[in-house]
Amino acid sequence: LKFQIMMPGFDYDLAHPGRGSSHGWFFFSTYNSEEASTLMEVNASQNDKDFIAAVNWKKAEEYIAAGKGTMMDTKYAHNVYDDKTHTATSTMKNKVLMLDASELPGLVYLLPTPKSPHGCDVDPTGEYIVGNGKLSANLTVHSFTKMLDAIENEKFDGDAYGIPILKFEDVLAGVVEQAGLGPLHTEFDDKGNGYTSFFISSEVVKWKVGTWEVIDRAPAYYSIGHLMIPGGNSKKPSGKYLVAMNKITKDRYLPTGPELTQSAQLFDISGDKMELLLDFPTIGEPHYAAAIEADIVMKNSRKIFKLEENEHKYAITNESEAKVVRNGKDVHIYMSTIRSHFNPDNIEGIKVGDKVYFHVTNLEQDFDVPHGISMIGANTSELLIMPGQTETFVWEPKDVGVWPFYCTDFCSALHQEMQGYVRVSPASSSIELSWSMGED
Questions:
Q1: CA 136/CA 143 separation, integer angstroms
Q2: pLDDT digit string (tens) for 181-214?
Q3: Which of helix, strand or coil describes residue 131?
């Protein structure tokens, strides 16, 4: 972490960065400005409004360069993944640079917004910030230009813990009146339109940015939460399709459990009216999504993964390098996987109390041929190993016996035959390590 900002004890929900003219700022929705800690459905709904916190992260960097901030005790893991070695390092940190928003002018401002906002969304130009207040029938849109003017002319309405509260009417761009009930999230197309999900009235509402008029409505089945337009939270949305991700299933699908399948809907938004193209089930509780156009992905996708580019410490580049090495109670298995076998697939000399490291290299190079491995008794349920990669898991055998391992990702017509065995002997055994594949 480069820094953290000390903020009031509100609840902070979703955030989006500024873009265009508002680049350098970040906007967070906050709720529970009452700072309630019990029966929050009542006690966190007492104030007329909550806030959008506008954070000037460029100003934060200026303060850091000037030596501001205080190092505070903390404890967190700094995790870094290396694409070349396919491994992650985790470093425990015990200090973080803390900036106090109440002591550093210009760092944070609070924009009053309708009660209990969930989403906090920024239009493609960066001028408009939408506060989706769940307890409001109107949709409030703030102006970045007006916000800067209010800051410059100190149009404040008090403060919260030393952080200036801007006057609501002085940062208001407009209101989409009587748009629906329970607004949650807003995304945008490339024609100057906003699309907002309304949970209670269960609909997607299309409205015009700038005039704030409702253009179209489409029902959602049921109680839509998030919605997604490819590029809809960027400077260049595609504006062709919208996906509604609904929270409540009711009568849409068979009542299998313990949780019902959620529903989603695909709309064509290229015309004046939204047109439903597909109604389909999805898993879990669909909670936010982002997409970009397929041709952007395709032209930047790798199709071949070269084995010589694998820099994992325990990688092997061909089956002849497969081996098993003992170092005290630590045993390292250098294993390969390729359609449709492991090498080695029979291992002896492992003992109860050993710590066994499986270093498994997928020798496939075609981007669409991953392999999996699962070992009964291992703490990891399985590993998915992508082409040209090496992954490691640890197994600590506790009982004598013959223990199977197998491929967990369907890879060929002989996928079921892709398995092997480890014989575990008593801790006092003198059996030497040996390994083989297809040999007596």
A1: 19
A2: 999 999 999 999 999 999 999 999 999 999 999 9
A3: strand
Cis amide bond preceding 374, omega within 30: no
Q: How far is CA 30 from CA 143, 227, 270, 376, 397, in A?
A: 18, 20, 33, 46, 49
- As a whole number of angstroms, the distance between CA 260 and CA 373 comes to 30
Type of residue numbered 272: D
What are the tokens at 412?
Answer: 């060929």
- pTM higher than 0.85 for the full model? yes
Rounded CA-CA distance 6/68 in Å is 13
Sole residue written with tokens 């290396």: 82
Quick one: which of 287, 281, 284, 285 has its CA closest to 253? 281
Those residues with Cβ within 8 angstroms of residue 123's Cβ, 6 or more apart along the chain or in another chain: 130, 188, 194, 209
Work out the number of other CB atoms within 10 angstroms of the CB of residue 272.
Answer: 10
Give how far Cα 247 sits from Cα of 32, 135, 224, 250, Å: 23, 18, 6, 10
Q: Is 386 helix (H, G, I), strand (E, B) or coil?
A: coil
**DSSP class of residue 152?**
H
Q: Single out the residue of 196, 249, 183 nearest to residue 221, CA to CA.
A: 249
Q: Which two tokens stand for residue 363?
A: 């020798």
Q: Which domains are present in the chain?
A: 4-299 (2.130.10.10), 307-436 (2.60.40.420)
Instruction: Provide the token pair at 237.
Output: 């949305």
Amino acid of residue 315: A
